Amino acid sequence: MKLLNRIMERAKANPRRIALPEGTEIRTLKAADIILKDKAAKLILIGNESEIKTLAAENNLSHIEEAVIIDPETHSGMEHYANLLFEIRKSKGMTIEQARALAKDPLYLGCLLIKNGDADGELAGARNFTGDVLRPAFQIVKTLPGIKVVSGAMLMFTPAKQYGEDGLLVFADCAVNPNPSAEELAQIAVCTAQTAKALAGFEPRVAMLSFSTKGSAKHELVDKVTEAVRIAKEMAPGLLIDGELQADAALVPSVGQSKAPGSKIAGHANVLIFPDLQAGNIGYKLVQRFSGSEAVGPVLQGMAAPVNDLSRGCSVEEIVSMIAITANQVTL
What we know:
Blueprint: H1 2-13, E1 17-20, H2 26-38, E2 42-46, H3 49-58, E3 68-70, H4 78-89, H5 96-103, H6 106-115, E4 121-124, H7 130-141, E5 151-157, E6 168-172, H8 182-200, E7 205-209, H9 220-235, E8 240-245, H10 247-251, H11 253-259, E9 271-273, H12 277-291, E10 294-301, E11 307-309, H13 316-329
Parallel strand pairs: 1-2, 1-4, 2-3, 4-11, 6-9, 7-8, 7-9
Antiparallel strand pairs: 5-6, 5-10
Helix pairs in contact: 1-13, 2-13, 4-5, 6-7, 8-9
């Protein structure tokens, strides 16, 4: 895909320091070898150094030696990272002993590397649950100023070239928030527009989806979406956004003209914001399976530094793409 090629080329042009807390996970190691061979990022592998080197040798991963390897059990900086965690969390009741133990957890250590300025971003999730990846990120890296909610966007490469940008659309939130409030939904919309512009390179046209279009149905769920549109416009006055819109009204020009005449978004949306996680997660998976689309992500957005989560069923190729995307997010 041309976009992923462009993302990879941008990563190569400005290699970033990306921490991989699952340094002993074989798919991650294979992806790391590819990234290091292509010089698309400077990688920090977290895990048992002997195990990482053994796995690399057994699988002929000759470029792993170019990575920085941090073994939490032996690294000379562990007391510093433990003290950093203690200072961040002592107001929540954390003791220095608890901080020393948690700092050895690769998922916590990856975030501490970012907080300390030793890494630019992190990617994990090939063997860890999403909640375990996000918990230390929320505690240590935290969110961007003015943003209280983290969300997950999917880059959807579809064969339906008549929709979005030559078949490319960005869906959110597909990964994190089960039932966002109107304010949270607005923040998701603004962050997703920024992600679309920075990663996909197009001017976002954001549709806030619902089962109603412009008052065709009355319900508190519809009210939440319309309120989110109002808040998003206040947050980002120049953003092209409209709602509430049904999916066909958002995507199909003739339907958009019929259901929402005069809308600049209806029938021309390239960013779709779903009203809750059930709709977003189900929606992207249906599109992916029924149409043969490729879904890349989730790209986590709203964090003060890029921390991304993988599916535990991810492929080596998907990890390679997500490392490049994480590197690209550093410049957002």
